[in-house]
Design brief:
alpha/beta; Rossmann fold; UDP-galactose 4-epimerase, domain 1; 7-stranded parallel beta sheet; two-stranded parallel ribbon; globular
């Protein structure tokens, strides 16, 4: 039976990498409704949740409005009378590989879908959180930690504009809804995150390394041996999002690891942990950078009592274990 003393929580993009882990954490104590259109996410991420009484999945493209109160499958949560208490808005392609494949969809996810999610918050008087990105800061030219008051340097018409400039617009829309409709709307700026359920075929660094190692192929680094990046494990990011939602801070707040790691060291460690004979090779730099600098997480520490706890070693082990179990879905052979 559904416990109606639980909060009703909506997660848009909840079948994606971060969204599915967030649903895992929230469904323990709340009723969770997930919206997703599977444009870049996977049913595999949520299969284990579909039989949970406190979880409902709705397939919908949030670029188009939806009245959730009218859906019969949500009657168990009494959405028509109770509504939603919280909305986590994560619906948007996030991999650079898809910015060129789905540029219009990405731009509209950051505009139309964000407006539609905010409208749901207004109708329900719900707390709202936008999952924004470190991409709003643009490519950082030095290794100085980035604070939330840095306005960034983003190319509004470049190949990443549907995402980078799109996220900046989504933040502007969120702030203006907050001021106009007096809703509790928050902004989290998420830096590079990794862990289980990342797609193995979307061109992200750590999954690419693991797939290459499992397939005995070279691990390609698009830069030199000094290229560095930050990596935060998914469980830490989820904890940060929940803490921000439950806080009095509206943000924006940086969530990510404040420690640089050499990409070459990560690649070599993946080779060791997989028992692979693959070699690390250096290629020319990509048109988009691997990382956007290191976050200053002072505000997250002081306001939320949050900082990353899971080491890169533990995170890699968990990621490799998951990807070994699922590599056949992508035609990868050991």
């Amino acid at each position: 039976m559904v416990d109606l003393n639980r909060k009703n929580i909506l997660i848009t993009g909840g079948a994606g990498f971060i969204g599915s882990h967030l649903a895992d954490a929230l469904v323990r104590d709340h009723n969770v409704v997930v919206l997703d259109n599977f444009i870049t996410s996977q049913e595999l991420n949520i299969d284990h949740l579909l039989s949970n009484y406190n979880y409902k999945f709705i397939r919908h493209d949030l670029r188009f409005p939806i009245d959730l109160s009218q859906l019969p499958e949500l009657e168990a949560f009494r959405v028509r009378s109770i509504g939603f208490h919280e909305i986590y808005h994560l619906a948007c392609p996030t991999s650079p590989k898809y910015f060129n494949k789905y540029p219009i969809e990405t731009a509209l996810a950051n505009s139309h879908a964000t407006a539609n999610a905010l409208d749901i918050a207004v109708r329900n008087g719900a707390k709202f959180m936008l999952a924004s990105s470190a991409a709003i800061y643009g490519f950082h030219k030095d290794n100085a930690p980035i604070t939330e008051d840095y306005w960034g340097e983003v190319n509004p018409i470049g190949p990443r504009s549907s995402y980078d400039e799109g996220k900046r617009f989504a933040e502007a829309l969120t702030v203006n809804y907050r001021h106009t409709y007096k809703i509790d709307a928050k902004i989290a700026r998420i830096f590079k995150t990794f862990g289980p359920r990342m797609r193995l075929d979307d061109g992200r660094m750590i999954p690419d390394f693991i797939v290459s190692a499992l397939n005995s192929k070279p691990l390609n680094i698009y830069g030199d041996e000094y290229l560095s990046a930050t990596f935060c494990y998914i469980d830490d990011i989820v904890e940060g999002l929940i803490r921000l939602m439950n806080s009095d801070d509206a943000g924006p707040i940086n969530l990510g690891s404040d420690h640089f790691h050499r990409v070459s060291d990560i690649a070599k460690r993946v080779v060791e942990l997989t028992g692979s004979k693959s070699q690390v090779e250096y290629k020319g730099a990509l048109s988009y950078p691997y990382e956007f600098g290191v976050p200053d997480i002072t505000r997250a520490k002081e306001s939320l009592g949050w900082f990353p706890l899971i080491s890169i070693e533990d995170g890699l082990n968990k990621s490799i274990e998951y990807m070994k179990a699922h590599y056949r879905l992508y035609g990868i052979r050991q």
